[in-house]
Amino acid sequence: MPHESVDILARGGTTESNTVAEVSGSVVSAIAAPTAGAEATDKRKTDPALFEACRVTEALLFASASPVRTNEIARVLPADTAVSEVLTVLREHYQGRGVELAKVGNAWAFRTASDVADRLTVEKVRRRKLSRAGLETLAIVAYHAPVTRAEIEEIRGVTVSPGTLDILFEEGWIEPRGRKQVPGRPTTWQTTAAFLDHFGLESRNDLPGLRDLRKAGLLSPAPDSPVALPGGPDEAAVEAWKNTA
């Protein structure tokens, strides 16, 4: 069961436009404070265009309820703006602060700094708990994407209920990737940015490997588990998510 960080940067009961203005103003006021990102701040001050681009990007990220994709950030900035430089400067500026700029897939969001997050977490019981079939299916999609329903069934060794994929899709954790170029052209599935964000991953490359799961004691010792991890024998990677899904 996940720990969800409580955002202590309260936005108050204002309208969306006022929220953007107030947040932007508070962020600009904080720039003068000495931090680990002082070098990034100096760079912003010596380049007016970069400074303004950082201000706009900060306001956009703070006002958004979900991670903002890089191309969406680019839309609100001048055409000649190097978005990657803006994000790099902002990331450096927030080093050592209570919040940090985190990359989630191809999107960006402000998150509570990892070293203080444990002080700001609460337990929240989810009303909808995934079945074991759902957890196994999610694990297979995460480690083997893009994967078809037939391939999921082959790995699990049992038929996948139509409702299982529907639930994962409704949760926003998987999405269609396209169609496989084989007879029947079945739909393939992959995990989403929401999946990465929920499990605190930057990309699928950050998924724990077989050795990591064993070391953490998260793998079932049962040798006949149906879920196969890439690069290792058939073992239940889904066990790693029992306490987080």
Please characterize this protein's 3D structure:
The protein is α+β, with helices and mostly antiparallel strands and 245 residues long. The protein has two domains: 3-122, Arc Repressor Mutant, subunit A; 132-241, Arc Repressor Mutant, subunit A, CATH 1.10.10. It is 40% helix and 13% strand. It has ten helices and eight strands. Strands 2-4-3 form a three-stranded antiparallel beta sheet. A hairpin with a 2-residue loop joins strand 3 (99-104) and strand 4 (107-112). Helix 1 (16-30) crosses helix 3, helix 2 packs across helix 5 (83-93) and helix 3 crosses helix 5.
- Report mean pLDDT, rounded to a whole number: 75
Shape, per Cα inertia axes = globular
Count of extended strands: 8
Assign the CATH topology of the largest domain.
Arc Repressor Mutant, subunit A
Fourth CATH level, the homologous superfamily of the largest domain:
Winged helix-like DNA-binding domain superfamily/Winged helix DNA-binding domain
| Spatial gap, N to C terminus | 5 Å
Major sheet size, sense and barrel closure: 3 strands, antiparallel
Radius of gyration: 21 Å
Order of helices and strands: EHHHEHHEEEHEHHEEHH
The total tally of domains equals 2
Helix content: 40-55%
Number of helices: 10
Poorly predicted regions = 1-36, 221-227, 231-245
Précis, in short:
With 245 residues, this protein is of the alpha+beta class. It has helices spanning 16-30, 38-46, 48-63, 70-75, 83-93, 132-144, 149-156, 162-170, 193-198, 210-215, and strands at residues 3-5, 68-69, 99-104, 107-112, 121-123, 147-148, 174-179, 187-191.
